[in-house]
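Replying to the earlier thread about multi-chain prediction with a worked example.

Input:
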Amino acid sequence: MRRQARRWKGSVVSSAPSFLERHEFLLRRLHSLAGLVPVGAYMMVHLAVNASVFGSPRIFQRLVFHIHSLGPVLPLVEWTFIFLPIIFHGAFGLFITTGVKPNIEAYPYNSNLRYTLQRATGVIAFLFIFWHVFHMHGWFHNHFWVTYVAHPLMGAEFSPYNAGSSAALAMQASFLVPVLYTIGILAVVFHFSNGLFTLGITWGIWISPTAQERAKLLANVVFVIFAVAGMASIVGLYSMSQEKIAEVRAEEDEAYKVLVETGDIVPNPEKHSPLSEYAPGKHSDAEESDVEEGE
Amino acid sequence: MIAHANKPKTFFVKILRQDAPGKPSYWEKFELDYEPELNVISVLQKIAAKATTAGGQKTTPVCWDCGCLEEVCGACTMVINNKVRQSCSALVDKLLEDGREIELKPMSKFPVVRDLYVDRSRMFNALKKVKAWIPVDGYYDLGPGPKQSRGDQEMAYPLSECMTCGCCVEACPQYSKIELTPNVGETPEEFEDRKVDTFNRNFVGAAAISQVALFNLNPTGKMNAGERLDALTEEGGIQVCGNAQNCVAVCPKKIPLTMSIGRIGRAVTFNTLRKWFDRPAKKH
Amino acid sequence: MADKRVLVVGGGLGGLSATMKLAELGIKVDLMSLTPVKRSHSVCAQGGINSVNDATRQLGDNEYKHFDDTVYGGDFLNHQPPVYEMAMWAPKVIDLMDRLGVTFNRTQEGFLDRRRFGGTLYKRTAFAGATTGQQLLYALDEQVRRWEVEGLVKKHEMWDFLGPILNDNGQCVGAVAQDLFSMEIKSFKADAVVVASGGCGLIYGRSTMSMTCNGSAASRCMQAGAKYGNAEFIQVHPTAIPGADKLRLMSESARGEGGRVWVPRKPHDSRAPKEIPDSERYYFLEERYPEYGNLVPRDIATREIFDVCVNGGLSVEENRQCVYLDLTHIEASELNRKLGGILDIYRKFQGVDPCYTPMRIFPAVHYSMGGLWTNYDKKESGGLIAGSPKNQATSIPNLYAIGEVDYHYHGANRLGANSLLSCIFSGLFVAPGLETLLSNQGPGSVAAEQPQSLYDEAVKKQQERHESLLKQSGEENPYLIHQEMGALMTNAATVVRHNNQLEEAIGKLADLKARAWKCSLSDTGTWSNQNVLFTKAMQDMFPIAEAILKGALARDECRGAHYKPEFQLPGLTAEDPAEHRRQAEEWCDKFEQNIQKFLKTSVSTYDGKDVTISYEDVDTSIEPPRPRFYGLVGAEQISEVWQERKKKKKEAAQAAVTN
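Result:
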């Protein structure tokens, strides 16, 4: 929109429309796209990888090692394709959700329910991911922060080189943890699958009522698949016995040793569980000084 | 006939009234004798003639908007028992199936002029914004229009039944009310400009989007499709749609509004990309 | 120098087409309407719009035949040059509407689809679903919006036209109007005013018309001195759904598909219709017209339904006039397939499914053929001189009337699908005439040169009326007076008219009029006071109501929609051929006498107190009048005699020329 001068509250305001106003279309479309790629795509991979823990903690660890084989490039990849897009999608989503007035009571239609849930699950997902990243990764990898802030607050519980065992312990830290994960994952998965459906309308992929009905079916299938995947990882982690955890940890350490030898991963004690034999302070290998920041 | 046998002798109508813009709203209750085959319009006509509340107090007739009374003009939209609809086709017998009271409120997304009468000029403004017309050369005889397939006509006809009644935007959670009042020292023209500017910066709503679908379907209208799509990617354009799909559920003419939104969604995608790639090179 | 401006009052098909054409000619227009123009009553038109087309042409149709059908259908009361011009323009009007994007139904090859309508043998009617009027109106509304953006049109929606402003020379130089919200009364300067305010159905209380069709604009012009033509011709549609608020149209096709009309033989039988055995049902159309049955022509169906209820006292309900229109003997699936759209209207508004319960219907006032008297500039070869400022001009200089409020296209009876045509045509046609008028006025705006006091005075007068109404005290309730007027008019001046009833009604109307000025208002506020606006409109209905009644009383004949059984020419009764022939001759004599006496436009004028009727000749220069026979006994013989006479006249005329 081109406006030379704008009138606001009676007086002529010469400022151009704000960035958000000028680029509303672009920003909304980017927001929509970001929900699918990379955020949604990442979520699918993430849930699929995690679900593997249900069947085999070994496969899970192998997949995590694969991710971490990126080494120093990993933080760059994570920030570009995961954190920044999630922050944009979440923050812009919250911004556009403020000011809308849900009216599900007066218009109790299926689609309106989905609309309302999409916004509610968006907010839940935002809070959940915020907590989840703290719970598993502690937000910052600063040693002091991790030791004196994150750990006492039940944060930074996940250790990538002891993926299965540390995740299981993290999940079992309190009965609240699996409850929160269940709520969070269901919200995220709903938000994604329904978002997939509305994205198709927004971008004009499914137009006719028939096409939209089919797309709705597709969205439902996506929801079921990833909800099951999410639940599988929760159940898998929560139901792991202490003996099994110890056993898994031993296997993880074993694998770590081999992979370091073959040069597939960079040794990093910070990525170990405190209970691992490679945990910082337990061994005095040369790698110990290799403390890295940021993930 | 809907069974009249178990109908009450009288029934109540509760109306959310407001004397003028900016004035507080208040409820007033009226009691009417039951008659078969009443609709909300005839109820309001009876209230106007009687002008007495259920408590027996004299009051002013309720102000409301109506025209054709057969659901083709779009004037008499209001919120009846919490749902937006045309009051002419709201039958008392059906409304009384759930009780002895009918509740009438003005539409909540438009400024109240008085009582149930609202100002929907924002909707007509949206039709200007999206250039909802066929830009013909003129009105001299230039022979017939272009031939059109039956399929196209069948697609266009339902869209062209839109009567700008406002049900779609009233039910839309993304469409919010804009009520402006003139400022001190502002001329009527300045106020009008400010109003149009504010309207243009807020959501156009499903009706206007669907009109773009209609005109971009027409063989002549198609020639200027880009202009209309551009208008829909400005601030307040199609991107504000949140896909709640209430519009299509409440539309009294059953216009496939969400289909129009999908179709225009696709068109603006391509239009924007095309424009971006076709943009003129910067001159130095 | 101020720009010239035209004020158009009313934004239906007529007002919008005039506005759009004026804007194209570069003339600035103020467009005034009681509602957003998109909500005008034209949206209610369902059927279609007529014109000759390539397909009918090859079957022998032409513009002349369309003209002939129109004047024959109108019982020759139409002025022929304008009708001729309209028929010539009809194909162009439809082409234009097609170009404007009207979603007309299409043939499989992509041409406009056509259907057949009453009163013609050809498939002339273009249509857009069952909402042709709505579609046409929207196309024009869009064009006017385009001109609004261009700055040539300024809309004044939610303004009530209170009357034209005349200068000392009696020329119209503007109008006074009132804002429906702020109640502000303001003058509008205009170099010409075009009234396109539609019909006056609300005078009958409930009709098939919209709530804005109160005739007030026409009445206010009449009160300012404009002549009103053919007031007594009001079209009544046989089948409408009676509603507490409005009478909604039920298309003729319900009978076409086998619908049967009946009433219980026992008056107001309280049993459910399906419980009444066949022997106790009175299928009066089938019994009275064994040949045509339920498919008798529209006017006859209307009269018979009316007769059974009003004179026979056999209405289904005691407190309301109605008869059954029964489709329940037909398979529901078949009904929904063929009549789905119109049955939906019944379901929606009555909450009853006509597939299983007979519909209750009654004739309803539908269209006013009469209206403000207008002039035209006739071409020697038939038709009108395009661009002449005389076309569509009322008797007040610079005041014009088009559309339903104009009187001269439909004569005594309007053909289906011709009203949309006349509205658009007269709107398009008036514009070049106005262009000539304005350019004849010389440079600058005439209105702008008038003394300001003229406008101030006009506003003051209206302001006084408004305020005295607010202060008025009395016992009367304007809504109840309107109901009484509606009942009075419906009983006396719709389908069947009797002189004694009309005389009585004129008396009662005068009483009612006196009471109408004793109304006290329940709302005396100064913001959006619908009470006072309604009261003013109601008071202004009286001159037209009086014109209808007086015009009907004075017209002792049957013509089109005006039916007085006492003056109907009876059919031939004699069996003996010679006597039969003699009766036919006599019939034709009487018919010719009747033409001499009554083939005239009734012209009503209002002097501030009473309506006076005078008569004016009808221009039948193109097609001489001939009798209409609908189910008349002896029609063949009469027709034969008539043809012989016509031939003789022609020969005599030729002889006169050769001598």
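The radius of gyration of chain B is 22 Å.

Feel free to reuse this layout for your own posts.
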